[in-house]
Amino acid sequence: MPSSWFDVPFLFCRLRIVASYTVRENTMPSFDSLTTRDVEVAVSGAFRLQAAHGLQPYFRNEQVSLHVRGRTRGEFVLIEKDTSLTRGATAKFAGTTTAGLVALTLFPGDKHEAQLALPFGEAFTLPIKSQVWETYTHPKGTHTNRGTVDDEFSIGDHLTLTFPEKPGEVRLDKAEPLIGFFPDCKTEGGVRLTGLLRLTADIPAFHLADDTLDANPIPHCRVRVLCPDGVEREYESDEAGDIFIPRADKGVYTLVEVLHDRAPQSAAVPGAWSVDVIPDMA
Amino acid sequence: MPNLETLLNDTLLLTAAPDAPWKSYGASPGALEAAAADPGTPGRWNWSHDVRKPGRVSGVTYHLLRTPWYVEQTPTVLEELLWHPIEVGYRGLPLTLELTKKFLVRKYETSRGTVAKGQSAHWLPAELDRSMLLVFGFQLNLRAKSKTFSLEPIPLDVMERDDFMPRPGAKPPKAPVMKVTRTETGTLQLVPLRVLVCAEFVCCQESTDYVPGAKARTSRFRPHLMLMSNRPLERLAAKISIRRPSMSTMAHEGLPPADDQDGMSHMMATGMWSDSNSPEIAWEKIFTVSIPPVWSSIFSRFKTNLPAGAGYLMASPDAPGGPGFLSHRWNDAAGRYEQHQEELMPGQGYFDNIHVAPPMRAPKTLRDLYPDAKLNLEEIVMAPFCIHDCLHQHWRWLPAKEKSLHGWDEKGPYAVPGAPHIPLHQHLRVEVESPHAYAYCVRSEQVLEPGRWEYILHEGLAYGISASHDVMGKMLLGGRALLSPWPSEAQASWAMFYWVLRYSRTRDRAVERLLEDGAPVP
């Protein structure tokens, strides 16, 4: 089916997925047991997808790494007569995953459906340390073992979403995860997708966001930037918190300061700074 | 750097009951819900609290056991307590923190807990009765409409982070060098102003640590606020309204409240007093048979029957101390008032305490005996201790021996004898809302350091329970000597005992032993 998306050579994407859920259930109905899983994880990434159209508009990038920050806690309790066994693990982590494939396939038609694939496998993994414990309680007392184990946190899913007929922003808020994004994740448990797959002519030089897990973009915030020609210029973030600067291939752009001349940003202070590299643009 | 859990350990409730259950509120979906807060076993204290209006506690009662002066009963201590919106200033911007459900993060409730001796520099040893802690989080919305400021709740994930609040005294982190090349996008996080507010309504079991010399039993309750910000705040103003019922619900002798039956005038009245700082007035020297605590010997200033609208600056960093106002004490032998210059402590303001209680009445036989005399027998104010239904608040005590009665230094409470019981930089004003209610108003113009708790109404209040029999016996005996010119009924009357502490009698006229504030000097 003809689609103007076939004419798009690149998609510049900013992805953000937040999973925050608590599940408590008896996973062994024949026994008196309780499994608890608390997860709060934020995944973010900025990358470029390149067109590799076939019968459908199709974009891909095999070298996408994602930033992960979060905590997990899992516990299993089994009670039998006067004894109980508790096994649990908890982890707090932050880092960048191994690189993997991100692919977006559009299915032009009445529904304008698309599928964003981040396949499970070798990619999108992060080594983490988990604190584990095992407690055995019986009439004569309680015995507990504790330790730290090397573990791995991995990400992956196929997200179903809709896209606009004409090339433009694709919002992720209403995308549906097929599996749940994380191992053992319950899709009905509270996974929230936020962010944009933003079709822009270039990547933004700077992006302004708040310091929450959702990293909400900060719009209409003015900044002063030192350009490679030695001149300082003022720019303003757009609705998505992006600041686009027509940039030469060489040269460094320095964000000198956030201007405190306008509410509400005048009541903010700069926090963490990070850089996303789009290496295949070079 | 601390997260929410660590910070809340500083509250009184969690110092006493670290495992108290809580219920979470807030908009974040999937937020961790702990076990529902447990109101617990009913104790002596009881009240109502509705999270839809979290800044209000109503119907506060206390279950009194029988004493020689009244039967077992549950009088109303407060009709309501209101935590009004807190005003703060940041970079010249005035902000109002409304303690509403929108900003409520957690509610803890417990019916027991213990603060052990030496456990905390900020909280006195105590056994908790029914108590509550409310946690509110405010942050400036950086995504608000351009050129506007608005507040939103702090997201739960932010409060769980170890850098939620800075350490006190920590230097702000160095600004990063923010450079990008053609193939890079640099993301800068902006951190908004955040303020954490804890409102505690902690009720304690009976103790004797509220007055010098352990002369009386009271039950403390501590409806204080604690506030912390991640940025320096330039200004703070907070107000707490404390409202008793207009009529005392207390009954003596098991009878329903009624004048003439129980020696009480059931209409509430408000009075304020200042302690004398004179070293001769140590409380261990009073309560003897020979020296009853007459007002001219223990107080330097007082005002009774305060009307709505009256207000005074009670403590201030601008008050230098030293030689202060002139008081006028009655000299019985000379038959005239003598003028004294009162010595004030640094920070000391107009009055030191407030008492809201129903006055007493002289026995009917005495009132009938002197129907036209100017003896003020119809309304007798209780002080220095109250035998019934009295709400006390002391924001300063005379320089007493007990550490629990010492005021703040720059580091914290219970440090300086005779100093006000509020942080050094706070200005305290108390305003009378009605004869049975007042507002505790705190203001600070000093920059409040990020990551450090600011305490408001840290000193708390107390509900009078009883004095020990021994103390009461001594007091009454001491008063009897002064009542010797009166008919014998007067010597068995608590109302007349209080009368004689305040007044001397010259023929058929009552003469103030200490001239009331504002009264013309005869």
Layout of helices and strands:
The complex is a heterodimer of chains A (282) and B (522).
Chain A: E1 10-25, E2 32-51, E3 58-64, E4 67-80, E5 83-96, E6 100-107, E7 113-118, E8 125-138, E9 141-154, E10 157-162, E11 170-171, E12 176-177, E13 191-198, E14 206-210, E15 222-226, E16 232-236, E17 242-243, E18 253-258, E19 268-277
Antiparallel strand pairs in A: 1-2, 1-13, 2-3, 2-4, 3-6, 4-5, 5-8, 6-7, 7-10, 8-9, 10-12, 11-13, 14-17, 15-16, 15-18
Chain B: H1 4-8, H2 12-16, E1 22-24, E2 45-49, E3 56-62, E4 76-83, E5 86-90, E6 93-97, E7 104-110, E8 114-115, E9 126-140, E10 151-153, H3 156-160, E11 179-180, E12 184-192, E13 194-207, E14 216-222, E15 225-229, E16 235-243, E17 269-275, H4 295-298, E18 299-303, E19 311-315, E20 322-331, E21 336-344, E22 353-357, H5 364-369, E23 391-394, E24 427-434, E25 437-444, E26 454-456, E27 461-467, H6 469-482, H7 488-491, H8 494-502, E28 503-506, E29 509-512
Antiparallel strand pairs in B: 1-7, 2-3, 3-4, 4-16, 5-6, 5-16, 7-9, 8-9, 9-10, 9-13, 13-14, 13-15, 14-27, 15-26, 16-25, 17-18, 17-22, 19-24, 20-21, 22-23, 23-27, 24-25, 28-29
Helix pairs in contact in B: 6-8
